[in-house]
Amino acid sequence: MSHIGYRLDGSVAVISLNRPDKHNAQDESLLRDLDARWRQAAEDDAVKVVVLRADGKHFSSGHDLKTPAPGYFREGKTVLESAYRWETEHYLGYSRRWRDVPKPSIAAVQGACVAGALNLIWPCDLIVAADNAYFSDPVVQFGVGGVEYHAHTWELGARRAKEMLFTARKFTADEAFAAGMVNRVVPLDELDTRTMQLAHEIAEMDPWALATAKRAVNQTLDVMGQQAALQSAFDIHWHGHANALLRTGYPLLTPDPLPSKARTKEADA
Fold first, then answer.
1. The CATH number of the domain where 258 resides is what?
2. One of this protein's Pfam families, by short name (predicted)?
3. Contact by Cβ (8 Å): 127, 121
4. How many domains does the chain have?
């Protein structure tokens, strides 16, 4: 069963994470289906704007740490080459592809947006946050220096990015807005309505002009080195995997469950 919803609201495609009982934690199936829906929206000429949202209390608690991806293992043992390929495709690769979909995209975020959830929202062009939203990347506690789509510096600025990583603390929606990571903060009960209003406002614009405006901004970031920085940080991330495996048995590199002493509660129950 897919945990991704998809519907059209006029010329706006609405993609929904629909695994609320697991706080929309991302396993391989969810990510694969999410990528398929992004592709569907990108290829549909009737779609002018894409909205990414989530059902339930939280946007996403990040990677599903209880179900490590099968691509990491061969005969019960971690295989570095296949694990690196799997992450390159499903984490860094998907995020890069979503970022470059030639249509404006908006992420609507409520509650927890933790670690791997940042891989989903940062590729979007705009972010609307509910007033109860919070953002964090606590994986330094596992011995890893940050999530795979390492856009922290671009999204928050260098000093706030370091604070997020060094302390693992939660950034509120207002703090994220002040840093320029979030475009708007709205009451929780207005999140969907206000996001869709913004989406339809944008959809009134000429689609070719929207696509070229997006490309111009993204290419400016690329000239400034964003893509090279993301790849470099992703490779550094893999040094973190080795450290995490030695320190805690971090689940993405072992088929055994994460030891309870190393587990961080990613979202409030």
1. 3.90.226.10
2. ECH_1
3. yes
4. 1
**70-103 residue pLDDT tens:** 555 555 555 667 777 777 778 888 999 999 999 9
Range of the domain at 75: 4-262
pLDDT above 90 coverage of the chain, percent: 59
* 268 found inside a domain: no
Please say whether the beta carbons of 56 and 5 come within 8 A.
Answer: no
The answer to the question of residue 245 being in a domain is: yes
Using CA atoms, how far apart are residues 40 and 177, in angstroms rounded to an integer? 30
Listed in order, strand segments (DSSP E) in the chain are 4-9, 12-17, 49-54, 73-74, 77-78, 105-109, 112-114, 126-130, 134-136, 171-172, 184-186
**This prediction's pTM:** 0.85
In a domain, 267, yes or no: no
269 inside domain: no
pLDDT tens digits for range 97-144: 999 999 999 999 999 999 999 999 999 999 999 999 999 998 888 777
List the one residue out of 95, 111, 86, 98 whose CA is nearest residue 25.
111
| Pairwise CA distance, residues 99 & 122, whole Å | 8
